[in-house]
Design goal:
The complex is a heterodimer. Chain A is an alpha/beta fold. Chain A has helices spanning about 40-55, 75-85, and strands spanning about 5, 30-35, 60-65, 90-95. The relative contact order of chain A is 0.25. The chains are: A alpha/beta, B alpha/beta. At the A-B interface, β1, α1 and β4 of A face β1, α1, α2, β3 and β5 of B.
Protein backbone atom coordinates (compact mmCIF):
# COMPACT_ATOMS: atom_id res chain seq x y z
CA UNK A 1 0.00 0.00 0.00
CA UNK A 2 1.54 3.37 -1.00
CA UNK A 3 2.36 5.99 1.62
CA UNK A 4 1.88 9.74 1.66
CA UNK A 5 3.77 12.28 3.75
CA UNK A 6 1.89 14.31 6.34
CA UNK A 7 2.86 16.76 9.06
CA UNK A 8 2.43 15.45 12.57
CA UNK A 9 -0.42 17.31 14.34
CA UNK A 10 0.74 17.09 17.94
CA UNK A 11 3.14 19.48 19.63
CA UNK A 12 5.92 19.24 22.09
CA UNK A 13 4.32 19.10 25.50
CA UNK A 14 5.29 21.58 28.06
CA UNK A 15 8.29 23.08 29.60
CA UNK A 16 11.73 21.66 30.34
CA UNK A 17 12.14 20.45 33.95
CA UNK A 18 12.83 23.46 36.15
CA UNK A 19 14.74 21.77 38.94
CA UNK A 20 14.89 18.25 40.24
CA UNK A 21 12.45 17.43 43.02
CA UNK A 22 14.30 17.19 46.32
CA UNK A 23 13.22 14.99 49.21
CA UNK A 24 13.44 16.23 52.79
CA UNK A 25 15.93 14.58 55.14
CA UNK A 26 13.34 14.48 57.93
CA UNK A 27 9.90 15.83 58.81
CA UNK A 28 11.00 16.61 62.39
CA UNK A 29 10.70 20.32 63.10
CA UNK A 30 9.57 21.21 59.57
CA UNK A 31 6.76 23.58 58.60
CA UNK A 32 4.14 22.08 56.26
CA UNK A 33 1.81 24.17 54.08
CA UNK A 34 -1.55 23.11 52.64
CA UNK A 35 -3.29 24.62 49.62
CA UNK A 36 -6.88 23.40 49.95
CA UNK A 37 -8.46 23.09 46.48
CA UNK A 38 -11.88 23.81 48.08
CA UNK A 39 -13.41 20.53 46.87
CA UNK A 40 -15.77 18.77 49.32
CA UNK A 41 -13.97 17.17 52.29
CA UNK A 42 -10.47 18.45 51.48
CA UNK A 43 -10.58 20.80 54.47
CA UNK A 44 -11.41 17.82 56.71
CA UNK A 45 -8.55 15.80 55.22
CA UNK A 46 -6.22 18.75 55.78
CA UNK A 47 -7.45 19.04 59.41
CA UNK A 48 -6.60 15.39 60.03
CA UNK A 49 -3.32 15.38 58.12
CA UNK A 50 -2.18 18.51 59.96
CA UNK A 51 -2.90 16.91 63.32
CA UNK A 52 -1.28 13.59 62.37
CA UNK A 53 1.81 15.17 60.81
CA UNK A 54 2.45 16.98 64.08
CA UNK A 55 1.53 14.06 66.37
CA UNK A 56 3.13 11.18 64.46
CA UNK A 57 5.92 12.75 62.44
CA UNK A 58 7.16 15.63 64.57
CA UNK A 59 6.15 18.42 62.19
CA UNK A 60 6.59 21.79 63.95
CA UNK A 61 3.60 23.64 62.52
CA UNK A 62 1.14 23.79 59.64
CA UNK A 63 0.16 26.75 57.43
CA UNK A 64 -3.25 26.61 55.70
CA UNK A 65 -4.57 28.38 52.60
CA UNK A 66 -7.82 27.72 50.74
CA UNK A 67 -8.54 28.48 47.09
CA UNK A 68 -11.73 30.33 46.25
CA UNK A 69 -12.64 27.59 43.77
CA UNK A 70 -10.94 24.45 42.49
CA UNK A 71 -10.43 25.53 38.88
CA UNK A 72 -8.70 28.83 39.50
CA UNK A 73 -5.19 29.34 40.89
CA UNK A 74 -4.54 30.23 44.52
CA UNK A 75 -4.00 33.97 45.03
CA UNK A 76 -0.44 35.26 44.88
CA UNK A 77 -0.27 36.18 48.61
CA UNK A 78 -0.93 32.51 49.46
CA UNK A 79 2.07 31.43 47.37
CA UNK A 80 4.25 34.13 48.93
CA UNK A 81 3.24 33.13 52.45
CA UNK A 82 3.92 29.44 51.79
CA UNK A 83 7.22 30.17 50.09
CA UNK A 84 8.36 32.23 53.05
CA UNK A 85 7.31 29.85 55.81
CA UNK A 86 7.19 26.26 54.58
CA UNK A 87 9.60 23.37 53.98
CA UNK A 88 6.95 21.14 52.40
CA UNK A 89 3.76 22.13 50.56
CA UNK A 90 0.84 19.76 49.96
CA UNK A 91 -1.84 20.53 47.39
CA UNK A 92 -4.98 18.72 46.31
CA UNK A 93 -6.10 17.98 42.75
CA UNK A 94 -9.42 16.48 41.67
CA UNK A 95 -12.54 15.45 43.59
CA UNK B 1 10.59 23.91 48.32
CA UNK B 2 9.50 20.29 48.47
CA UNK B 3 5.97 19.69 47.19
CA UNK B 4 3.53 16.79 47.12
CA UNK B 5 0.16 16.59 45.36
CA UNK B 6 -2.78 14.62 46.76
CA UNK B 7 -4.95 13.18 43.96
CA UNK B 8 -8.00 10.94 44.11
CA UNK B 9 -7.56 7.79 41.99
CA UNK B 10 -9.59 9.20 39.06
CA UNK B 11 -7.21 12.16 38.78
CA UNK B 12 -3.82 10.42 38.86
CA UNK B 13 -3.43 10.54 35.07
CA UNK B 14 -4.27 14.25 34.94
CA UNK B 15 -1.98 15.04 37.85
CA UNK B 16 0.93 13.02 36.54
CA UNK B 17 0.67 14.25 32.94
CA UNK B 18 0.28 17.84 34.00
CA UNK B 19 3.23 17.73 36.39
CA UNK B 20 5.33 16.58 33.47
CA UNK B 21 3.95 19.39 31.28
CA UNK B 22 4.70 21.98 33.94
CA UNK B 23 8.31 20.90 34.29
CA UNK B 24 7.95 18.97 37.54
CA UNK B 25 7.82 15.36 36.30
CA UNK B 26 9.29 13.89 39.47
CA UNK B 27 6.95 15.57 42.00
CA UNK B 28 5.29 12.75 43.97
CA UNK B 29 1.54 12.11 44.15
CA UNK B 30 -0.14 10.73 47.27
CA UNK B 31 -3.23 8.82 46.18
CA UNK B 32 -6.59 8.75 47.99
CA UNK B 33 -9.74 6.88 46.88
CA UNK B 34 -12.22 8.49 44.44
CA UNK B 35 -14.82 9.98 44.88
CA UNK B 36 -13.38 11.57 47.99
CA UNK B 37 -16.08 14.20 48.44
CA UNK B 38 -18.70 11.54 49.27
CA UNK B 39 -16.81 10.14 52.27
CA UNK B 40 -18.20 10.44 55.78
CA UNK B 41 -16.22 12.20 58.47
CA UNK B 42 -15.08 8.82 59.87
CA UNK B 43 -14.00 7.60 56.41
CA UNK B 44 -12.02 10.82 55.88
CA UNK B 45 -10.21 10.13 59.14
CA UNK B 46 -9.35 6.57 58.06
CA UNK B 47 -8.07 7.84 54.72
CA UNK B 48 -6.02 10.55 56.47
CA UNK B 49 -4.38 7.96 58.74
CA UNK B 50 -3.11 6.03 55.71
CA UNK B 51 -2.35 9.13 53.69
CA UNK B 52 -0.18 10.75 56.36
CA UNK B 53 2.25 7.82 56.32
CA UNK B 54 2.30 7.88 52.52
CA UNK B 55 3.08 11.62 52.59
CA UNK B 56 5.87 11.03 55.10
CA UNK B 57 7.29 8.23 52.96
CA UNK B 58 7.16 10.28 49.74
CA UNK B 59 8.51 13.45 51.41
CA UNK B 60 11.63 11.53 52.42
CA UNK B 61 12.23 10.23 48.90
CA UNK B 62 10.22 6.98 48.82
CA UNK B 63 9.34 5.52 45.41
CA UNK B 64 6.20 7.00 43.81
CA UNK B 65 4.44 4.28 41.84
CA UNK B 66 2.32 6.76 39.88
CA UNK B 67 5.47 7.72 37.96
CA UNK B 68 5.57 4.37 36.13
CA UNK B 69 4.34 4.46 32.55
CA UNK B 70 4.67 8.19 31.91
CA UNK B 71 5.74 8.62 28.32
CA UNK B 72 8.71 10.78 27.38
CA UNK B 73 7.81 13.78 25.23
CA UNK B 74 9.18 14.26 21.73
CA UNK B 75 10.62 17.63 20.85
CA UNK B 76 10.54 19.50 17.58
CA UNK B 77 10.31 23.17 16.67
CA UNK B 78 8.79 22.42 13.31
CA UNK B 79 6.23 19.71 12.70
CA UNK B 80 7.75 16.36 11.85
CA UNK B 81 7.07 14.90 8.44
CA UNK B 82 5.98 11.31 8.65
CA UNK B 83 4.85 8.70 6.14
CA UNK B 84 1.33 7.36 6.60
CA UNK B 85 -0.90 5.11 4.46
CA UNK B 86 -2.51 6.86 1.50
CA UNK B 87 -5.55 4.61 1.83
CA UNK B 88 -8.44 6.53 3.47
CA UNK B 89 -9.41 3.76 5.88
CA UNK B 90 -5.83 2.95 6.87
CA UNK B 91 -4.96 6.64 7.38
CA UNK B 92 -7.95 7.17 9.65
CA UNK B 93 -7.25 3.96 11.55
CA UNK B 94 -3.77 5.33 12.24
CA UNK B 95 -5.24 8.67 13.41
CA UNK B 96 -7.51 6.85 15.85
CA UNK B 97 -4.68 4.69 17.09
CA UNK B 98 -2.51 7.77 17.74
CA UNK B 99 -5.49 9.61 19.26
CA UNK B 100 -5.29 12.52 16.80
CA UNK B 101 -8.98 12.17 16.01
CA UNK B 102 -12.20 13.55 17.50
CA UNK B 103 -13.86 10.33 16.33
CA UNK B 104 -14.75 11.56 12.85
CA UNK B 105 -12.61 10.94 9.77
CA UNK B 106 -9.81 13.44 9.20
CA UNK B 107 -8.24 15.05 6.14
CA UNK B 108 -4.54 14.11 5.74
CA UNK B 109 -2.43 17.20 6.55
CA UNK B 110 0.01 16.95 3.67
CA UNK B 111 2.73 19.63 3.48
CA UNK B 112 1.03 21.05 0.36
CA UNK B 113 -2.36 21.43 2.06
CA UNK B 114 -0.78 22.93 5.17
CA UNK B 115 1.17 25.41 3.06
CA UNK B 116 -2.01 26.48 1.24
CA UNK B 117 -3.75 27.08 4.54
CA UNK B 118 -0.79 29.02 5.95
CA UNK B 119 -0.95 31.31 2.91
CA UNK B 120 -4.15 32.85 4.28
CA UNK B 121 -2.35 34.36 7.28
CA UNK B 122 0.46 36.88 7.58
CA UNK B 123 1.91 34.73 10.32
CA UNK B 124 4.97 32.67 9.55
CA UNK B 125 4.88 28.93 10.16
CA UNK B 126 7.05 29.12 13.26
CA UNK B 127 5.26 32.02 14.94
CA UNK B 128 4.29 30.88 18.43
CA UNK B 129 0.64 31.74 18.99
CA UNK B 130 0.26 30.24 22.47
CA UNK B 131 1.03 27.40 24.81
CA UNK B 132 -2.14 25.41 25.22
CA UNK B 133 -3.22 24.09 28.64
CA UNK B 134 -3.30 21.59 30.22
CA UNK B 135 -0.29 20.00 28.46
CA UNK B 136 1.11 23.40 27.45
CA UNK B 137 2.10 22.21 23.99
CA UNK B 138 3.37 24.97 21.73
CA UNK B 139 0.78 26.10 19.18
CA UNK B 140 2.73 27.54 16.27
CA UNK B 141 0.82 28.90 13.28
CA UNK B 142 1.92 25.77 11.43
CA UNK B 143 0.68 23.40 14.15
CA UNK B 144 -2.69 25.17 14.13
CA UNK B 145 -2.79 25.00 10.33
CA UNK B 146 -2.13 21.25 10.42
CA UNK B 147 -5.10 20.73 12.71
CA UNK B 148 -7.24 23.09 10.61
CA UNK B 149 -6.49 20.97 7.53
CA UNK B 150 -7.38 17.81 9.41
CA UNK B 151 -10.68 19.39 10.53
CA UNK B 152 -11.62 20.18 6.93
CA UNK B 153 -11.18 23.96 7.04
CA UNK B 154 -10.95 25.98 3.86
CA UNK B 155 -7.62 27.86 3.83
CA UNK B 156 -9.25 31.25 4.47
CA UNK B 157 -10.67 30.03 7.81
CA UNK B 158 -7.20 29.85 9.39
CA UNK B 159 -7.04 33.46 10.74
CA UNK B 160 -10.32 32.78 12.63
CA UNK B 161 -8.92 29.58 14.12
CA UNK B 162 -5.64 31.27 15.11
CA UNK B 163 -7.54 34.12 16.78
CA UNK B 164 -9.75 31.61 18.60
CA UNK B 165 -6.60 29.90 19.95
CA UNK B 166 -5.23 33.28 21.09
CA UNK B 167 -8.51 34.17 22.81
CA UNK B 168 -8.96 30.77 24.46
CA UNK B 169 -5.44 30.85 25.90
CA UNK B 170 -5.84 34.22 27.61
CA UNK B 171 -5.64 33.68 31.34
CA UNK B 172 -9.10 35.01 32.20
CA UNK B 173 -10.69 32.38 29.94
CA UNK B 174 -9.23 29.71 32.28
CA UNK B 175 -8.52 27.12 29.59
CA UNK B 176 -6.72 25.00 32.17
CA UNK B 177 -9.96 24.59 34.11
CA UNK B 178 -12.10 24.19 31.00
CA UNK B 179 -9.89 21.51 29.47
CA UNK B 180 -9.37 19.41 32.58
CA UNK B 181 -12.72 19.71 34.37
CA UNK B 182 -15.38 17.05 34.86
CA UNK B 183 -17.96 19.65 33.65
CA UNK B 184 -19.41 19.45 30.11
CA UNK B 185 -17.78 22.64 28.87
CA UNK B 186 -16.53 23.68 25.43
CA UNK B 187 -15.23 26.93 23.96
CA UNK B 188 -18.04 28.54 21.97
CA UNK B 189 -16.68 30.69 19.14
CA UNK B 190 -18.73 33.76 18.17
CA UNK B 191 -17.54 35.58 15.05
CA UNK B 192 -18.43 39.23 14.42
CA UNK B 193 -17.67 41.75 11.72
CA UNK B 194 -17.11 41.59 7.97
CA UNK B 195 -15.18 38.29 8.01
CA UNK B 196 -18.32 36.43 9.13
CA UNK B 197 -19.99 37.43 5.85
CA UNK B 198 -16.86 36.88 3.73
CA UNK B 199 -16.40 33.35 5.03
CA UNK B 200 -20.09 32.50 5.14
CA UNK B 201 -20.18 31.81 8.87
CA UNK B 202 -23.81 31.15 9.73
CA UNK B 203 -25.53 33.40 12.26
CA UNK B 204 -29.05 32.72 10.97
CA UNK B 205 -31.25 29.64 10.83
CA UNK B 206 -29.70 26.57 12.49
CA UNK B 207 -26.52 28.56 13.21
CA UNK B 208 -25.56 26.19 16.04
CA UNK B 209 -26.61 23.14 14.07
CA UNK B 210 -25.29 21.28 11.07
CA UNK B 211 -25.03 22.38 7.47
CA UNK B 212 -22.41 25.13 7.20
CA UNK B 213 -18.82 24.20 6.48
CA UNK B 214 -17.31 27.22 8.24
CA UNK B 215 -19.26 26.67 11.47
CA UNK B 216 -18.60 22.92 11.37
CA UNK B 217 -14.88 23.04 10.68
CA UNK B 218 -13.69 26.18 12.52
CA UNK B 219 -15.03 24.84 15.82
CA UNK B 220 -13.70 21.40 14.99
CA UNK B 221 -10.23 22.82 14.25
CA UNK B 222 -10.14 24.48 17.67
CA UNK B 223 -11.15 21.18 19.27
CA UNK B 224 -8.32 19.34 17.48
CA UNK B 225 -5.86 22.03 18.65
CA UNK B 226 -7.10 21.66 22.23
CA UNK B 227 -6.70 17.90 22.00
CA UNK B 228 -3.56 17.48 19.90
CA UNK B 229 -1.57 20.52 21.04
CA UNK B 230 -3.17 21.07 24.46
CA UNK B 231 -3.08 17.36 25.17
CA UNK B 232 -6.64 17.19 26.57
CA UNK B 233 -7.46 13.65 25.52
CA UNK B 234 -10.80 12.28 26.77
CA UNK B 235 -10.30 10.07 29.79
CA UNK B 236 -6.76 11.34 30.27
CA UNK B 237 -6.29 15.06 30.94
CA UNK B 238 -9.82 15.83 29.70
CA UNK B 239 -11.76 14.59 32.74
CA UNK B 240 -15.27 15.39 31.44
CA UNK B 241 -17.93 13.21 33.02
CA UNK B 242 -20.11 13.31 29.88
CA UNK B 243 -18.79 16.06 27.63
CA UNK B 244 -21.35 17.56 25.25
CA UNK B 245 -21.97 17.69 21.48
CA UNK B 246 -20.45 21.20 21.37
CA UNK B 247 -17.07 19.64 22.03
CA UNK B 248 -17.09 18.56 18.36
CA UNK B 249 -17.75 22.10 17.14
CA UNK B 250 -19.42 25.14 18.73
CA UNK B 251 -19.19 28.09 16.37
CA UNK B 252 -21.54 30.68 14.92
CA UNK B 253 -21.68 34.28 13.78
CA UNK B 254 -23.91 36.93 15.27
CA UNK B 255 -26.91 37.81 13.10
CA UNK B 256 -25.81 41.42 12.83
CA UNK B 257 -28.30 42.22 10.03
CA UNK B 258 -31.28 41.42 12.28
CA UNK B 259 -29.82 42.64 15.55
CA UNK B 260 -31.74 45.72 16.74
CA UNK B 261 -28.84 46.65 19.04
CA UNK B 262 -25.10 47.18 18.59
CA UNK B 263 -23.29 43.94 17.71
CA UNK B 264 -21.27 42.11 20.33
CA UNK B 265 -17.85 43.31 19.17
CA UNK B 266 -18.96 46.96 19.19
CA UNK B 267 -20.37 46.51 22.70
CA UNK B 268 -16.97 45.10 23.68
CA UNK B 269 -15.00 48.07 22.35
CA UNK B 270 -14.18 47.20 18.74
CA UNK B 271 -15.10 49.11 15.58
CA UNK B 272 -18.02 47.77 13.55
CA UNK B 273 -15.62 47.38 10.61
CA UNK B 274 -13.29 45.12 12.58
CA UNK B 275 -13.68 41.36 12.63
CA UNK B 276 -13.46 39.58 15.95
CA UNK B 277 -13.63 36.22 17.65
CA UNK B 278 -15.23 35.89 21.08
CA UNK B 279 -14.79 32.67 23.04
CA UNK B 280 -17.16 31.63 25.83
CA UNK B 281 -16.71 28.65 28.19
CA UNK B 282 -20.14 27.19 27.38
CA UNK B 283 -21.86 24.32 29.15
CA UNK B 284 -24.41 23.64 26.41
CA UNK B 285 -27.55 25.30 25.12
CA UNK B 286 -31.04 25.33 26.60
CA UNK B 287 -34.11 26.15 24.53
CA UNK B 288 -36.20 29.09 25.78
CA UNK B 289 -39.46 28.75 23.88
CA UNK B 290 -41.97 31.49 24.62
CA UNK B 291 -44.75 33.00 22.57
CA UNK B 292 -44.77 36.07 24.84
CA UNK B 293 -45.18 39.24 22.82
CA UNK B 294 -44.86 41.59 25.74
CA UNK B 295 -41.32 42.50 26.88
CA UNK B 296 -42.13 42.30 30.61
CA UNK B 297 -43.73 38.90 30.14
CA UNK B 298 -40.81 37.63 28.08
CA UNK B 299 -38.19 38.94 30.52
CA UNK B 300 -40.03 37.26 33.38
CA UNK B 301 -40.04 33.80 31.82
CA UNK B 302 -36.47 34.04 30.56
CA UNK B 303 -35.21 35.19 33.97
CA UNK B 304 -37.10 32.38 35.67
CA UNK B 305 -35.59 29.84 33.25
CA UNK B 306 -32.01 30.94 34.03
CA UNK B 307 -32.47 30.12 37.70
CA UNK B 308 -31.59 26.60 38.86
CA UNK B 309 -29.64 25.46 41.90
CA UNK B 310 -27.20 23.11 40.14
CA UNK B 311 -25.87 26.00 38.03
CA UNK B 312 -22.18 26.89 37.86
CA UNK B 313 -23.12 30.51 37.20
CA UNK B 314 -24.85 30.71 40.60
CA UNK B 315 -22.14 28.64 42.30
CA UNK B 316 -19.36 31.00 41.29
CA UNK B 317 -20.93 34.25 40.06
CA UNK B 318 -20.45 33.41 36.40
CA UNK B 319 -21.07 34.95 33.05
CA UNK B 320 -24.20 33.39 31.56
CA UNK B 321 -25.10 33.99 27.92
CA UNK B 322 -28.25 34.38 25.93
CA UNK B 323 -28.67 33.87 22.20
CA UNK B 324 -31.76 35.94 21.52
CA UNK B 325 -33.69 35.17 18.40
CA UNK B 326 -34.35 38.18 16.18
CA UNK B 327 -38.06 37.94 17.12
CA UNK B 328 -37.41 38.03 20.84
CA UNK B 329 -34.85 40.84 20.44
CA UNK B 330 -37.35 42.84 18.41
CA UNK B 331 -39.92 42.59 21.24
CA UNK B 332 -37.34 44.10 23.61
CA UNK B 333 -36.38 46.79 21.15
CA UNK B 334 -40.03 47.82 20.54
CA UNK B 335 -40.48 48.19 24.29
CA UNK B 336 -37.62 50.72 24.20
CA UNK B 337 -35.15 48.47 25.99
CA UNK B 338 -31.44 48.62 25.24
CA UNK B 339 -29.26 45.53 25.54
CA UNK B 340 -27.97 46.93 28.80
CA UNK B 341 -31.57 47.37 30.08
CA UNK B 342 -32.31 43.74 29.24
CA UNK B 343 -29.21 42.59 31.14
CA UNK B 344 -30.19 44.65 34.18
CA UNK B 345 -33.75 43.33 34.21
CA UNK B 346 -32.64 39.70 33.79
CA UNK B 347 -30.04 40.09 36.52
CA UNK B 348 -32.58 41.52 38.96
CA UNK B 349 -35.35 39.07 38.13
CA UNK B 350 -33.21 35.90 38.10
CA UNK B 351 -31.91 36.19 41.67
CA UNK B 352 -32.14 32.83 43.43
CA UNK B 353 -32.86 32.28 47.11
CA UNK B 354 -29.95 30.43 48.75
CA UNK B 355 -32.28 27.96 50.48
CA UNK B 356 -32.82 26.23 47.12
CA UNK B 357 -29.28 24.87 47.30
CA UNK B 358 -28.29 21.36 48.37
CA UNK B 359 -26.50 21.68 51.70
CA UNK B 360 -23.01 21.01 50.26
CA UNK B 361 -23.60 23.53 47.48
CA UNK B 362 -24.89 26.08 49.99
CA UNK B 363 -21.66 25.73 51.98
CA UNK B 364 -19.66 26.08 48.76
CA UNK B 365 -21.55 29.23 47.70
CA UNK B 366 -20.97 30.71 51.16
CA UNK B 367 -17.25 30.39 50.42
CA UNK B 368 -17.09 31.23 46.72
CA UNK B 369 -19.50 34.20 46.74
CA UNK B 370 -18.49 35.69 50.05
CA UNK B 371 -16.03 38.25 48.59
CA UNK B 372 -18.88 39.72 46.55
CA UNK B 373 -21.95 39.19 48.79
CA UNK B 374 -20.56 38.97 52.33
CA UNK B 375 -22.20 36.59 54.78
CA UNK B 376 -24.73 34.35 52.98
CA UNK B 377 -27.78 33.01 54.82
CA UNK B 378 -30.69 30.82 53.66
CA UNK B 379 -32.67 33.93 52.65
CA UNK B 380 -29.88 35.58 50.69
CA UNK B 381 -30.77 36.30 47.07
CA UNK B 382 -27.89 35.22 44.85
CA UNK B 383 -27.48 36.99 41.51
CA UNK B 384 -26.51 34.80 38.55
CA UNK B 385 -23.40 36.90 37.90
CA UNK B 386 -21.37 39.38 39.90
CA UNK B 387 -22.61 42.34 37.85
CA UNK B 388 -25.58 42.75 35.50
CA UNK B 389 -23.24 43.57 32.61
CA UNK B 390 -21.59 40.15 33.02
CA UNK B 391 -24.63 38.60 31.33
CA UNK B 392 -23.68 38.14 27.67
CA UNK B 393 -26.21 38.63 24.89
CA UNK B 394 -25.96 38.06 21.17
CA UNK B 395 -28.72 38.05 18.58
CA UNK B 396 -28.59 35.02 16.30
CA UNK B 397 -30.77 32.43 14.67
CA UNK B 398 -33.66 32.59 12.24
CA UNK B 399 -37.42 33.01 12.52
CA UNK B 400 -39.05 31.44 15.59
CA UNK B 401 -40.07 32.13 19.16
CA UNK B 402 -36.93 30.61 20.63
CA UNK B 403 -33.96 32.04 22.39
CA UNK B 404 -31.16 29.97 23.88
CA UNK B 405 -29.70 30.05 27.35
CA UNK B 406 -25.99 29.20 27.33
CA UNK B 407 -24.95 28.42 30.91
CA UNK B 408 -21.21 28.54 31.47
CA UNK B 409 -18.45 26.81 33.38
CA UNK B 410 -18.74 29.67 35.90
CA UNK B 411 -15.03 30.10 36.50
CA UNK B 412 -14.35 31.59 33.10
CA UNK B 413 -14.64 34.98 31.40
CA UNK B 414 -15.39 35.51 27.72
CA UNK B 415 -12.54 36.92 25.67
CA UNK B 416 -12.85 38.92 22.43
CA UNK B 417 -9.91 39.45 20.07
CA UNK B 418 -9.58 41.15 16.74
CA UNK B 419 -8.73 39.02 13.72
CA UNK B 420 -5.81 41.02 12.41
CA UNK B 421 -3.53 38.69 10.53
CA UNK B 422 -5.54 37.97 7.38
CA UNK B 423 -3.40 38.03 4.25
CA UNK B 424 -5.68 40.08 2.01
CA UNK B 425 -4.76 38.41 -1.29
CA UNK B 426 -6.16 35.19 0.19
CA UNK B 427 -9.68 36.53 -0.43
Amino acid sequence: MPDIVILEPTARAGIAPREAWRPLDTLEGKVVGFIDNSKPNFHLLADDLAELLVAKHGVASVVRHRKLAASIPAPQPAFADIEQKCDLVITGSGD
Amino acid sequence: MTSIVICSTAFITLGRTQLKALGAPDMPIAVIPHPFGLRTRREVRNIAEKCVDEIARLALGGVDETQAGVKASSSADRAQQIAVPEDFEAFNALCEERRWSDGLPLVPPTPERVKRVLNSTRRSAQDVIANVAPGFGTATAEAIAINAVMAGCRPEYLPVVITAVEAATEQRFNLQGIQATTNPVAPWIIVNGPIARTLGINGGMNCLGQGTRANSTIGRALRLVLQNIGGALPGEMDRATHGQPGKHTFCCAENEAENPWEPLHVERGFAATQSTVTVVGAAGTHNLNSHAKDADDLLKVIADSLRFPASNDYHFGGQPWLVMSPEHAEIMKRAGLTKSDVKRRLWEESKMIASRYASKDYVRAQHTRRPELGQIGPDTLLPISIKAEDIGIIVAGGPGTHSLYVPTFGQTRAVTRAIDDVRSEAH
